[in-house]
Amino acid sequence: MTVEDGNDRSRRPVETYVEAEGGGYAGLVRNATVRPDGRTIDYHRYTVTEAQYRDAVGDT
Known about the structure:
The protein is of the alpha+beta class. The protein contains 2 helices and 3 strands; from the N terminus they run E-H-E-E-H.
C-alpha cells in the first residue's frame, strides 16, 4: 500500500490496518510520481506478505 507523503489523515488508518495484518513500514519512495504540473510526489510504502497475513489471522 502507498500513501502520499504529507497525507497524515490517510496514513494513520493504513498503518493501523497493516500492523493488524502483520505487515510493516517498507520505507519512503522519493520522487515516485511526477504530476502534470511537474511537482514530484513522495510515497510512504507499507507491505504485508502472505506469510505475515496468515500468521496474523491464524490461517495455516
